[in-house]
Amino acid sequence: MARINENYLKLPGSYLFSEVGKRRRIYVETHPEAEVISLGIGDVTLPLTQSAIEALHKGVDEMGRAETFRGYGPEQGYAFLREAIASVDYAIRDVQIAPDEIFISDGSKSDTGNIGDIFGIDNKVAVCDPVYPVYVDTNAMAGRAGDYDPATGKWDGLIYVPGTADNGFVPDVPDLTGDDAPDLIYLCFPNNPTGTVATKKQLKSWVDYALENDAVILFDAAYEAYITDPEIPHSIYEIPDAKRCAIEFRSFSKNAGFTGLRCSYTVIPKELKVGGVSLNALWNRRHSTKFNGTPYIVQLCAASVYTPEGQSQTKGLVDHYLENAGIIRRGLVGAGYSVWGGVDSPYVWLKTKDGMTSWEFFDYFLNELNIVGTPGSGFGPSGEGYFRLTGFGSRENTLKAVERIRKGSLL
Ligand code: MLT
């Protein structure tokens, strides 16, 4: 008799962004006259850059001619893209990453979710709280999170490292050593959902902690393009010895607008070993078995990001969303909210008003202001009483939303 993976039955409700989307749809259906502004899920709104479009056209033309047609590519990604990443994203920052330490994929959501395949079920997992829900849910699916307690909003098998207003939403390393210390640690900076960034000193404390405890850091750097402060590291590998303890995830979604195209990459340095076993070799085995590569035309498009025109046009997209985030941030501060993020990040994190819970505030924003945001509690118990807005909307909608927030009502 077939049996299901019972861990799935332990998952509460639906995936956060599906729930937000569902509530938005219901509202729009029942209020067809409402002009609802979506600043919930971090999905981009600007079209692809000119250089990306040209690369896609070139790829399509190549695929249409017998002499240049390509079938299966290397599962790990084409050398032209891996080499461009190594030289532009890393060598420029004095970080030496070899092309065969880079694995091209179809998204950081998939990779941060799938990376658990190469780790044993008995690893103790630490997540920051609030946190991107994919890290938690995929560990729950694998059976690494234990049981969910609706009363606390926590999984009893996970270690939650709280981000709070007191630590500026940049959690400190946990006070756990020996057998109590985590084996796998998920970090995300610039942070989703709070928009905060970690300094070199703060990241170094995590790297030192991981090395002391033989733990592996899973570092999600999907938003690194949004860093404007020259003192803030873009890569965990800017921290000495991080190659011995960290895997890094990067995406083309939020910088180059690939949320619909799908391309990302994961870096696993060869010196990263667990019990003497190379994680690069394990991931290579997993990737080449379960994945047949990102489409050639998409990789060609991703490589266009690394040309001089691509770099400046991509920066144009990022600057646009950063300006939106700044508009939201300033608007919220002006309206009396306590706010984090929105400076080196597209995300703005705010404390709800009048003691409202995150979902009460979601309803207030949707019903009274016709703005969709994301409830902080959906990112974990420490997110309760907070709310996230994104800079990924259009400029027009961003300005309109801020005006509604300022007035506390529809215009
Ligand atoms: C978010 O809104 O947190 C992100 O868009 C989710 C994602 O990238 O999967």
What is shown here, in short?
The chain is of the alpha/beta class. The chain has helices at about 15-30, 50-65, 80-90, 110-115, 135-140, 200-210, 255, 280-290, 295-305, 310-335, 360-370, 395-405; strands at about 35-40, 100-105, 125-130, 150, 155, 160, 185-190, 215-220, 245-250, 265, 275, 275-280, 340, 345-350, 370, 375, 385-390.
Word description of this protein:
- The chain is of the alpha/beta class and 411 residues long.
- The chain has two domains: 13-47 and 310-405, Aspartate Aminotransferase, domain 1 (Alpha-Beta Complex), CATH 3.90.1150; 70-306, 3-Layer(aba) Sandwich (Aspartate Aminotransferase, domain 2), CATH 3.40.640.
- The protein has twelve helices and 17 strands.
- The strands form five sheets. A seven-stranded mixed β-sheet has the order 2-10-9-8-7-3-6, with helices on both faces.
- Helix 4 (108-114) runs parallel beside helix 5 (133-142).
- D-malate binds at residues 41-43, 109, 132, 192.
- The site of D-malate has 6 residues, from loops.
Strand content: 5-15%
Terminal CA distance: 60 Å
Major sheet description:
7 strands, mixed
Helix-strand pattern, N to C? Answer: HEHHEHEHEEEEHEEHEEEHHHEEHEEEH
Per DSSP E runs of 2 or more residues, the count of β-strands stands at 17
CATH fold field value of the largest domain: Aspartate Aminotransferase, domain 2
Return Rg in Å.
21 Å
Instruction: Estimate nothing, just give the exact number of structural domains.
Output: 2
By DSSP (H or I, 4+ residues per run), the number of helices equals 12
Low-pLDDT segments = none
Helix content: 25-40%
